[in-house]
Write a structure and sequence with these properties.
Radius of gyration: 19 Å
Number of strands: 2
Order of helices and strands: EEHHHHHHHHHHHH
Shape: elongated
Strand order of the largest sheet: 1-2
Largest sheet: 2 strands, antiparallel
Length: 234
């Protein structure tokens, strides 16, 4: 349960902080406006099956979806099955995904995950949260994305950097841990809208509520956002 307020850094990287009041009472109004603003919120990653979605989501960590899509356009032609990834030469895979960043760790996790899928899950990407999070490199965020978009299973809310930032600025949580933020958002959101909320907040974070310089004057929810006064006063 969020407390009454949280601290938000006025200038990223500085020690200057402001108290963000609890704004959960405005969640329904804010969510209604954002749904109308982004009626077709959809994932930006390109994929054709749960395996491709899993790989693309792992690659998307600290990387733009556009860049991941450029990489996977060729990657998915070269690696078509779980066996292809499990038997991949790690140096070659690192080269294939180099431009997504953190390529060494991503390549190691993708190969290890593929091997575990073969050994434990009969070569099929698992379709439960409990099983997905056993895969190397897969936490709740990635698992939620794979479940909802790959299997149509709504388990929770994927909390990436955008969702984390916006949920704090909007006063929906005072937590910084993604798992606790997810719990706070789930308490506010109907279960059938979990995935939509995540995707909508991500789009709004990319377009308007950016990390370093949010565009508060043009934001459709600035009159309901407790952080807008902080940033418009900068």
């Amino acid at each position: 349960m969020p407390s009454k307020s949280r601290k938000e850094t006025k200038n990223p990287g500085s020690d200057e902080e402001f108290e963000i009041p609890d704004n959960r009472h405005n969640f329904n109004k804010i969510w209604s406006i954002l749904r109308e603003e982004y009626p077709d919120a959809k994932p930006a990653l390109n994929y054709g099956n749960p395996l491709e979605l899993l790989v693309a989501t792992v690659l998307s960590a600290q990387c733009t979806d556009a860049q991941v899509n450029r990489v996977t356009e060729e990657l998915f032609k070269k690696y078509r099955t779980v066996e292809d990834y499990a038997n991949a030469d790690i140096g070659e895979l690192e080269e294939d995904i180099y431009s997504t960043g953190f390529y060494k760790n991503k390549a190691k996790n993708i190969i290890a995950a593929a091997r575990l899928i073969l050994e434990r899950y009969n070569g099929e990407v698992p379709d439960t949260m409990e099983d997905l999070v056993t895969l190397p490199g897969v936490g709740r965020k990635t698992a939620n994305i794979v479940l909802s978009r790959g299997f149509g299973v709504i388990e929770g809310i994927a909390v990436d950097t955008h969702v984390k930032r916006l949920s704090g600025r909007l006063g929906f949580t005072n937590n910084s841990d993604p798992v606790k933020i997810e719990q706070d958002l789930m308490a506010l959101t109907p279960k059938n809208e979990f995935d939509s909320l995540s995707m909508t907040l991500i789009l709004h974070g990319r377009k308007v509520c950016t990390a370093r310089k949010p565009k508060c004057p043009e934001c459709v929810i600035n009159n309901l956002c407790p952080s807008s006064l902080i940033f418009m006063d900068r």
